[in-house]
Request: fold
Amino acid sequence: MKRFWKIFTTILVCLGLVFFSSAIFLVCTSETAHATSTNSTNSANGTTNERARADGRARVNDDYGGTNQSPNTTDESTSTGSGGFSLNFNGDSGSLSATVRILLVLTVLSLSPAILVMMTSFTRIIIVLHFIRLALGTQTSPPNQVLIGLSLFLTLFIMWPTFSSVYNNAIVPFDQGKITQEQAYNRGKEPIREFMYGQTQSKDLNLFCDIAGITYDDYDDVPMHVLIPSFILSELRTAFIMGFLIYIPFIVIDMVVASVLMSMGMMMLPPTTISLPFKILLFIMADGWNLVIGSLVKTFQ
Reply:
């Protein structure tokens, strides 16, 4: 037993010596590596600084002029004898650069949903289609995606002459550089103003003119910030009137079905459950989609 303890103690002492030697070796190695890296970094920084100073002195002696990569500049130096700064370019038209045009296009695209919804026939169409779905009582049929898609294509169909006029009279000449930005804006807004003014009721226009304190004798005297809300209010009124007229036959069917169920003593049976098939049948027999869509399109002519 004593012999075993002696062997065990000897092994522990040997292992301790090995670990101690390894620790001392690692510490010495890390200090040497750190010193070496510090010296190399200092020397590299010194070399970089010397190169930077040399490049700076070289740049001072060089003349800056136009290159092939900058076609709008000239080969003249930007510094003058009086110490001023001058910038020369060969552009003679002074038109917007490509970057500014892209910025303007992105701005218009970001505002296009509001323009499409509020300054076209989209508002009246989507409201009337929504009233049809409520009058039928079909809950989510047709779904919102179908109604919005149908409204968009009907809006494109109705507004196509207006959009074509804006494109031909404003966008094409401006893209060809024949007119300025202000002229393109004035030409582009005229077809839209004409469309909105033709659909705006006089009392709505007079309402916003009174609020804004504006008097007008002619169509051209009405500013855009007064014409747009007047047009939107008129569209809402027209859409609700059409929705009320669409509701009337379906309300009659609901009342008849409810009266029949009450007379039969079926008070626990919802009338809408029985009237829904009859309303759908009436809508199909009367060719409702043809009548509604045709009436909607004709209201803008």
Q: What stands out?
A: Confidence is low (pLDDT under 50) at residues 58-67, 69-94. The CA atoms of residues 156 and 229 lie 21 Å apart.
